[in-house]
Specification:
11 helices, six-stranded parallel beta sheet, 349 residues, globular, seven-stranded mixed beta sheet, 15 strands, Rossmann fold, Quinone Oxidoreductase, Chain A, domain 1
């Protein structure tokens, strides 16, 4: 086997280039994966353009990837060479007190996300994943690589948050954002039994997909105040709001339109302060449940989510709007999100 691999390297803030890096050797609990498909999300742009993770310079970018097991460490039991494998964007260590308390994503000082920090990202010919037995899931034979790569971050982030939201059968639900996370959130809300589902967004293709996944109403700021529109259509406040996209101001809107005793769940990443108006929160006494969720990762979670695709309960592939091929397509895949028509880009290696 060769000693180096090719991939997309962050050379300096805002710049990437194809280059070579050493092929890592898996530790006792690790696996080396030959990459077959990767995807880009907004966090990749924050890493490249804003350099929110300075150690990424000189490493391959990317954190969403699936592939085939090329080699395993001496203590790996569940996986073998040749297995198709879905790799979460968060790979906790699973071996500390924080994990025992039920928060594996915050173990080891919050280092469940270590792509581009302590190891190369997924945008290369190979990548190495830690604690593979606890973190990764085998991809069912009838699930293709594009479907599986959607589970690594977008679908799992949305579903893990919605799964922990207090949605009862027939509840009214608002989903902010009709990008990949929002669309997956709509699908998850329907699976949990939501009744009327309001999807907030303006992208025409996103709106079409939102309807396909079960949204009953598409709400656009172009048609007036979002809160007023939903309160009128719903005949009052909604039961649950899920913030899966949009600016920080969406949190205030979600809190305003959600009833007392209802719940607000954020699966979005904000890079500006969230301000809650006093009136929206009834001076802090609205008695709402407000949660922000980061996916925990873990094999059990990913096996369950992949099974839902395998048995036909949900198909994330229509969310993919741009498909690129080969190593030469990696950079185009990275920057495709700048295209106004882009919802989710993937690159098949």
């Amino acid at each position: 086997m060769a000693e180096t691999m090719k991939g997309l390297i962050l050379t300096e803030k805002g710049k990437v280039a194809l280059g070579e890096r050493p092929i890592p050797k898996p530790g006792p609990l690790e696996a080396l994966v030959r990459t077959t498909c990767v995807a880009t999300c907004n966090t990749d742009h924050e890493i490249v353009e804003e350099l929110i993770m300075p150690p990424a310079v000189g490493r391959f970018v990317g954190h969403e990837g699936v592939g085939v097991v090329e080699a395993v460490g001496s203590e790996v039991q569940h996986f073998k060479v040749g297995d198709r494998i879905c790799v979460p964007s968060l790979t906790p260590s699973w071996d500390d007190i924080t994990t025992q308390k039920g928060w594996p994503q915050f173990g080891r000082g919050g280092m469940a996300f270590d792509w581009c920090l302590t190891r190369d990202g997924t945008f290369g010919e190979f990548f190495c994943v830690r604690n593979v037995d606890m973190n990764c899931a085998k991809i069912p034979d009838n699930v293709n690589d594009i479907q599986a790569v959607m589970v690594t971050d977008m679908l799992s982030t949305a579903w893990n948050g919605v799964e922990k939201s207090e949605i009862e059968i027939g509840n009214s639900v608002v989903v902010f954002g009709i990008g990949p996370v929002g669309l997956c959130s709509i699908g998850a809300a329907i699976l949990k039994g939501a009744g009327r589902v309001y999807a907030v967004g303006t992208n025409p293709k996103g709106a079409e997909l939102a309807k396909m996944y079960g949204a009953t109403d598409i709400i656009s700021y172009k048609d007036g105040d979002i809160v007023e529109q939903i309160l009128e259509l719903n005949g009052g406040a909604v039961d649950v709001s899920i913030v899966a996209g949009g600016p920080a101001s969406c949190m205030a809107q979600a809190i305003t339109m959600t009833r007392g005793g209802g719940s607000v769940c954020s699966v979005n990443a904000f890079y500006e302060d969230v301000v809650i108006p006093v009136a929206s929160w009834n001076s802090g006494m609205k008695t709402q449940t407000i949660k922000g969720h980061q996916c925990t990762g873990g094999r059990d979670l990913f096996e369950r989510y992949l099974a839902m695709i395998s048995i036909g309960r949900f198909d994330p592939e229509p969310i993919v709007s741009h498909t690129f091929k080969g190593l030469e397509g990696l950079e185009d895949c990275l920057w495709a999100k700048k295209d106004a028509d882009c919802i989710k880009p993937v690159c098949v290696l």
